[in-house]
Amino acid sequence: LLSPLPALPACSPLPALPACSRLATQDVTHTFVGDIRSWGAVALTLHGRTRQQRYSRQADWQYIRRCAELAEPTQLQLIGNGDVYSFEDWNEAVGGGGVSTAMIGRGALIKPWLFTEIKEQRHWDISSSERLEILRKFVAAGLEHWGSDERGVETTRRFLLEWLSYLCRYVPVGLLEVLPNKLHWRPPAFFGRNDLETLMASDCASDWVRLSEMLLGPVPPGFTFSPKHKSAAYSTAVPKDGAPGSGAGAAGVEEDQEQG
């Protein structure tokens, strides 16, 4: 929607192949990117680091653009991916030429209004009440899809809690000393401008459960939750102990499975 790919023929094959930029420690994509179009693909999504590197380094957009230049003569559309977290990041990624557009993963999980910021070219100091309304819409969609019975409620809750394990990493624009914020930065713990903003910034799973209870009611007896992406600082939720979370802050060495 933000930067659409050129129109493709109606008979075009399945459009995209995913790839990481490196195999182990060696760059490899540039060695075959010129052949991919002949294999039947019309687009390639290229991530600027390897799965093994996870988020221990920033995405290598210089290498992504190098591969895009090699792909251009074959009319392969190359879609870059990695570390887009602000409209400045977007502008830098797609404005330098080469790539057809950019894909956003982790940045959209943490800051789903990122697309509005890119479209309007501004930093949005979104309020905690506006963010809660986004969660309400998410919950409403979940209940519509999975149903409002006990099973539907708890399925919706599980997906909500997984998402909250990303959303808690957002630091409000009004609290930042430097703009734009970068995806790999890990801020110290902080208090928000109101209780809800502070609760949303907690990296404690029991506080995510508290937020889910505000939207879906009490959890069932014996309920526990631990996020699937297993960041080192996340502990299993103990929803009834009443202990406050530690707030936003360093989440240790991340081990997320998703690209972004």
Features:
260 residues; alpha/beta; four-stranded parallel sheet; two-stranded antiparallel ribbon; 8% strand
Task: Report on this structure.
The model is unreliable at 239-259 (pLDDT under 50). The protein has 260 residues and is α/β, with parallel strands linked by helices. α3 crosses α5 (114-120), α6 (128-146) runs antiparallel to α7 and α7 (150-167) crosses α9. Helices cover 35% and strands 8% of the residues.
- Major sheet, described briefly? 4 strands, parallel
Structural class: alpha/beta
Mean pLDDT: 83
Uncertain segments: 239-259
Count of DSSP H/I helices: 9
Radius of gyration, CA atoms, in whole angstroms: 20 Å
What is the CA-CA span between the terminal residues? 18 Å
Give the overall shape. Answer: globular
Helix content: 25-40%
